[in-house]
Amino acid sequence: MELPQGATVAVADGQKLSLFVNEGDAANPKLAAQPNVAVNTDNKSGGMGHSSSSANPDDDTQDEDGFSAGVVAILNKHAVEGKLKHLVVVAAPRALGEMRKHYHAKLKDVLVGEISKDLTGHTSAEIEKAIAAA
Q: Is 90:115 a contact under the CB 8 Å cutoff?
């Protein structure tokens, strides 16, 4: 997958978010880490106020879902405000599935790719390789 210059790369799982910007060009991406952002985890898709049971996700799953929804809330806000021109989402498979439920139409417009892989904690060079291979 080619990564346009200036594209934002969001790398997430159910607990951590790392943002990068491609300071290189499409042929030679160079990811630069961006400052950490606070993620609001109040949106629990499993159903806020419901206790854990066989019918409802456990507390850890609800926390991860809330984090994933919070990540997308940040990305949606940036997309609606025009701060995102191109976006690639790299997320753990379960987190990516949850994130997709919350994509705003403006976010879908700037989304150039998704990679269903947990690369949180990996170096920018490893993330660049994964994007190039996708």
A: yes
Residue pLDDT, tens place only, 3-27: 999 999 999 998 999 999 999 999 8
Global pTM reads 0.85
CA distances from 44 to 11, 58, 82, 83 (A): 20, 11, 26, 26
> For the CA atoms of the chain, what is the radius of gyration?
15
**The domain defined by 8-22+30-47+55-133 carries CATH number 3.60.21:** no
Within 81-122, residue ranges assigned H as helices are: 93-100, 105-110
Q: Any residues with CB less than 8 A from the CB of 122 and at least 6 apart, and which?
A: 11, 130
Q: How far is CA 108 from CA 41, 86, 134, in A?
A: 22, 10, 18
| Residue appearing with tokens 């997958």 | 1
Mutual angle of helices 93-100 and 59-80, in 10-degree steps: 50
pLDDT tens by residue, 78-107: 999 999 999 999 999 999 999 999 999 999
